[in-house]
Amino acid sequence: MAKWTAKHEAPEPLEGPVVATVTGGTILWFALFLVQLPFYGWFADRGQLWWVWTCAAGGFLGLIGIWYVRGREAALKRHAAERGEQAAQSPQGGRARPPCGD
Fold first, then answer.
1. Which H or E run contains 33?
2. Which of 33, 22, 24 is nearest to 57 (CA)?
3. 10 φψ region: left (φ > 0), alpha (ψ -120 to 50), beta (else)
4. What is the block-wise mean pLDDT of the chain (102 residues), using blocks of 10 residues?
């Protein structure tokens, strides 16, 4: 059997307002939970309480997601700042130096 090889390179990941997107989704999950609370008895009578608790779980998992993506954004900014400082301190004006032979 022949080994599979890609015909083209994978595209770069899409970057966008990740924190805002996750925050918006989290707010939506909590809003859906709050909208369903007055109908808790109706859901319970029909054995459909999972609708209510799915929205609650989505909201709480969204809080974890917000924490995660905020940390990721901070790490990306720190990394970019460190690379910028290293480029400014490089004697060749930001170009990488060839490795030493010694």
1. helix 18-36
2. 33
3. beta
4. 79 87 97 97 96 98 97 93 81 56 50
**What pLDDT sits at residue 71?**
96
What does the buried/exposed string (b/e) look like for 34-67 if buried means 16 or more CB atoms within 10 Å of the residue's CB? eebeeeeeebeeeeeeeebeebbebbeebeebbe
Taking CB atoms within 8 Å and a gap of at least 24, the contacts of 91-98 are none
Place of tokens 């770069």: 12
Distance CA 18, CA 57 (A): 20
